[in-house]
Write a structure and sequence with these properties.
Blueprint (H helix, E strand, L loop, with lengths): L4 H9 L11 H11 L3 E7 L7 E8 L5 E7 L20 E2 L2 E3 L7 H17 L8 E7 L10 H10 L6 E4 L11 E3 L1 E2 L1 E10 L3 E2 L9 H12 L14 E8 L7 E2 L2 E10 L5 H16 L4 E6 L7 E2 L4 H14 L4 E3 L7 H4 L5 E3 L13 E3 H18 L2
Parallel strand pairs: 3-6, 3-7, 7-18, 8-17
Antiparallel strand pairs: 1-2, 2-6, 4-5, 5-19, 9-16, 10-14, 10-15, 11-13, 12-14
Helix pairs in contact: 1-3, 3-9, 5-6, 7-9
The chain binds zinc ion (ZN).
Amino acid sequence: MPADPAAIARDLIRCRSVTPDDGGALSYLHDTLAKAGFTVHRITFTAPGTAPIDNLYARIGTAQPNLVFAGHTDVVPAGDEAKWSHAPFAGDIAGDVLYGRGAVDMKGGIACFVAAALDYLAASGGKPDNGSISLLITGDEESVAVNGTIKLLQWAAERGEKFDHCILGEPSNVNVLGDTIKAGRRGSLNGTLVVTGKQGHVAYPDRADNPVRGLVKLIAAMQAPLDDGSAQFDPSNLEFTSIDIGNPTVNLIPGEARARFNIRFNDRHTQETLKRLVGQRAQDAAEGRVRFSIEWEPSNADVFVTKPGPFTDLAATAIAEVTGRQPKLSTTGGTSDARFIKDYCPVLEFGLVGQTMHSTDECAPVADLVTLTAVYRRIMEKYFT
Ligand SMILES: [Zn+2]
């Protein structure tokens, strides 16, 4: 009997693991993996001002190469549960579709790589033919991501664990299973533009200096295109997300005006070169007459790309053999834990179709769960031959 990914996903959905709660999700995986012969570690990480978070690392085999499957069991809140046609933590299967929070992001993906590992091990005498399979699972991805993958990777490295390649099971496909592998992500950087003026009465503008004029000028200059893309990436973009003056008075020229922005940047920039470029644009636009500063927030979301090569070819071939589709290597979308994993080994993201992630009635067709399990198993077979 092959392992049933829909049943595993359903059991995981029934654990109410809205970050930072675990709801029994990791214990369920712990039992399932231990029964299959994995050595399972549970590690709780803490940090001031954040909830302690449980994490799991499991490995079977001692040889290299070590192929890692990574993911998170935590989910975003369900929102108004009355709006769901199936209760978000019931794991209902109706019309061959599995419903529930986390069905695609990403309890479904985890269920598929667990089922694939169980099937692969059963067919190969209980352990990988020449290497190791590991699972790296956190309960802290959807929120601040402080006590999760970033610390779990450090913990594993300190124990001497070496990772050769990683598949992160985030929902990477856009329309249909097999259309997209994520092979990198843009970086993300937040800043605030602060323009200082001089407060005064609107009727006596000569006695004041309105910072709004300067703010508008600098915003216009700063949101000009940053580049026209690169071989693996779309163009970078800088978006102003909030303009904050907070002035309730109609006849008062404010003393300060602020504007927040977020930049998604490709591999033509680093955080440092980007700060210089944006700062220079503001400076040029200011022409020595606008008093301004830019406050940058620290960012752990650097740009990275996993270049096409034997590992991307292996994954793409496995996907094409199982689904009949040639996946495209993409770098679009937001950040994920791949930004941390990339410091330890090459990482690709391949999972379910992302269309219902984070939305009401999140769901995955059972057929997709079965197909994704077959893809992961094919990847293991090719990897360990
Ligand atoms: Zn996710």
